[in-house]
Structures are given as C-alpha cells and as structure tokens.
Amino acid sequence: MAADPKTPDSATEYPPELSRLPPGRHGLPREFVVHNQRERLIAGLAEAVAENGYASTTIAHITRHAAVSRRTFYEHFNSKDECFVAAYEAVMEQLRERVDAAYQEQDEWPQALRAGLAAMLSFLAAEPNLARLSMVEALVAGPVVVERYDAAIRGLVPYVEAGRDGRPSAVLAQLSPTTEEALVGGMVSLISRRIIAGQTEELEQLLPDLVEFTLTPYLGTAEAAKIAQAD
Amino acid sequence: MRPPPGRQQLSREFITQHQRARIIAALAEETVTRGYRAVTVADIVRRAGIARNTFYENFSSKQDCFLATQDYAVEEALRRVVDAATEVESWQERVHAGLAAFLGYVASDPALARTCIVEALSAGPASLARYEESLQSFVPLFRIGRKVSPRAEQLPETFEELIIGGIFWVIYQRIIRGETEQIEQLLPELVEFALNPYIGAEAARRATA
Questions:
Q1: Contact B169/A217, CB-based, under 8 Å?
Q2: Exposed/middle/buried for residue A14 (C-beta within 10 Å: 0-12, 13-18, 19+)
Q3: Which of A199, B89, B169, B196 has its CA 20 to 30 A from that of B129?
Q4: Average pLDDT for chain A
C-alpha cells in the first residue's frame, strides 16, 4: 500500500515501510508490529476526528491517516466506536500518568495541585488533536464514551478533595459536599470551551486562574491568589 | 362573522407560538425517551399531535428544532432568573433568588432540562457549541458581583465562566443520576460556591442563611 500524499504527517511520523511489508518478512517480531499497528490506528483516528469531527469520520479516513489497510483495522477493532473507545482510554491514561506524576512530586497540597493542573494544561496544549478527542469529541461519540468521560472527570475529584486534609475545622465547616464536584466541573467546562473556540494552544495561560479558583475554598482568596501568581 | 384583521393576526401569532411550544415539548420528551440520535421527525410529530407539514412550517430539520429548543430553554431560564433577581435588592440576594429560580425551572421540566443540559452535549457539534454559548449568557449576571467584591480588581477574568461551568456540571451530574426532582436542595451549596470568590466563604455562608 502506498503512502497517501495528502497525509504527509502520518508518513513522516511512522516509517512507511512498516505498512508496506507483508507480515513476517521485515524481521520484526509480530507482536511489535501488531502493537505498533494498534497505536497507529489510534493516532490515525485522532487525526481523522480532528479533521472531520467524530460523526463524519469513516474507517477509510482512519486507515488513510494510519497508513494501514482496512483489513488491518478490522483485525484490531470491530467498529469506529470501538476504535474511539481505545483511543479515548489511551489518551486518558497518558493524561492521568502525567498529572499524577506531577502531583506526587510536590510535598505540599497547593503546590501539588498547581503542578497537576500545569501538567494537564501542557499535555492538552501540546496535543491539540488529543485534546479535542478527549474533551470535545468524546461527548458526541456515544453513551459508552460519555460514561467513561464522566467517570474520568469524577476521577479528578480526589486531587482537589485532598485540600481538606489538615484544614482548620472552621474552614471545613464552610465546605459543602459538592465543592470539589463544582470546582472540577468548572475547570473542565472552561477548558472544553477554549478547545471548541480553537484556543487549545493557549490553554496554559489559564493556569493561574484555575489554581486560584480551586485553592480559594480551602485557603481563602488572598492565599490562593498568592500561590496562583507564584513562579 | 369574520374577526377584525387585527384580532386574526394576533391569534395566528398565538397559534404559531403554541405550535412551536408543543413541538419543543414533544422533542424534549422524545429525546429523553429515545436519545437524540434515534428520534425522528415522525416521532416528534406524533408526540406533538400535529401534521408533518406544521413541523416543517416551523423548523427545517430535527437539528434545527433541537437548536431552537435549546434557545427557547435558555431564554426562558434567563427570563425567570432575571425576574426573580429584580425582586430583591443586594447582589448576594439576587444570586440566591436567581439560582433558586433556575433550579426551580430545572425541577419543573425534567425532560427539557435533560435535553438542554445533558443531551445537548452529545447531540453533535452545533448543539454543543450552542450549549457553550448559552453558558456565556449567564456571565454578565455574575460579573455584577465584582462591584461588591473587595478584590474586584484582582479577580481573574475567567471566574464567572468557572463558576457557571461548575454549577452546570453539578446539575448535569444530578440529572444523569436521576435526581432532577431533588435538585432544589442544592440551592444553599451552589449559592455559597458562587459567592465565595467574590465575598469570601464566611460572608457567602451568611448570605445563604
């Protein structure tokens, strides 16, 4: 299969000879090729969805971006939906790993939260296709993905909720049970709106605002602002 | 005897309004029952008890009807919020009254609320964009809070969007969990959440008492 001249990105990103050679003839272990094909399909889906939107994306779009055959697609996935779920899970796993690593590196909660948010924004800003896939297209990709999307967002709650630890009882008394849900929802909503508006690459500029917003209920406005503005 | 032309004009307008309202209500019911993708114009027409022609006199397609439903709900919500807010004096009271009116509206029409707050997100790019725009239309109501905030100058530009997004997310979660009828119980928590960045937690708590 020849590389599609209309998709120079996929041709430069992946060695084209991988897709042209019949299996077993290139000296690479089959498992490597299979794994690699799956990753290429996932990346191909992200590119195709960024270009066409989820609803209009076809399997032909995906295989063209991935530079693999239609048969290869069906060796890995039964449908576009299934491929999307795999792509969504792959993106969220990466995002979770980055956020968690950045968060765990800090000793103090306010700095940890700030580091986690910074990691999230920089990942999304650096990967506009994956940002769109995970924050916008996931919502229109059917109920299975929407459920996972909701669960992924709820998965951010514990990072914020950790702010309750060691807080004076007067502060805790003022925190309602929905505080974390509302903080996380507010952040996700703002990030999605910026992605929809085509401002994905400027997402990192939101960091001070998001930090101040999430720290305020726990530390008060003045302290939250101080940490948000710190370098 | 024929009614005078003025009267007839009025009644035609009335009929059109009434028809649109019926179609919108039918679309919301069908969307909640079947999910947006599965709903057909035939389903809406049947539920509304109108002729297919009547549907197409009002809307060009299912999507057009869905977007109109979103617009209708946002206009109605804003009207109720503003009406309730103008009944009281201070901005804090206005946030309280406005949110109460909003939650009351959600609880009073669960099908419309689910359609516009949950289904709108997954009904395609146009309705998702419309949903995002509709959140923006609440921004000015909160931004007035900067006038009473001792930190007005320092408050980040995006705070209103963050607060509104947070409120909608909490409501969204309650709706998908099937707790729309108890949604008004969230009032004190959401008022505190909205007021806290402007006037601090303590004053926010006092305002909800």
A1: no
A2: buried
A3: B196
A4: 87
pLDDT digits (tens, 9 = 90+) for A149-201: 999 999 999 999 999 998 999 889 889 999 999 999 999 999 999 999 999 99
Domains held by chain A: number = 2
pLDDT at residue A28 greater than cutoff 80: no
In-domain check, residue B113: yes
CATH at residue B88: 1.10.357.10
C-alpha to C-alpha distance for B2 and A216, rounded to whole angstroms: 67
C-alpha distance from B131 to closest chain A C-alpha (Å):
10
- Whichever domain contains A168, its CATH number is 1.10.357
Distance to chain B for A108, nearest Cα, Å: 22
Give pLDDT tens digits for A67-107: 999 999 999 999 999 999 999 999 999 999 999 999 999 99
Q: What is the CATH number of the domain that holds A57?
A: 1.10.10
Q: Say whether both A23 and A99 belong to one domain.
A: no
φ, ψ of residue B106 in degrees (nearest 5): -60, -45
In A, minimum Cα distance to B169 occurs at: A185
Give the span between the Cα atoms of B159 and B156, in whole angstroms.
6
Q: Does residue A24 come out as left (phi exceeding 0), alpha (psi in the -120 to 50 range) or beta?
A: left
User: Is B21 inside a domain boundary?
Assistant: no
Amino acid at A56: S
What is the value of pTM for the model shown? 0.86
A155 in contact with B, Cβ within 8 Å: no
pLDDT for residue B132 is more than 70: yes
CA of B123 to nearest chain A CA: how many angstroms apart?
6
Chain-chain contact of A188 with B169 (C-beta, under 8 angstroms): yes
Provide the total of helices (H) and of strands (E) in chain A, helices listed first: 15, 0
The pLDDT tens digits for A100-126 are 999 999 999 999 999 999 999 999 999
- Specify whether A33 is located in the same domain as A98: no
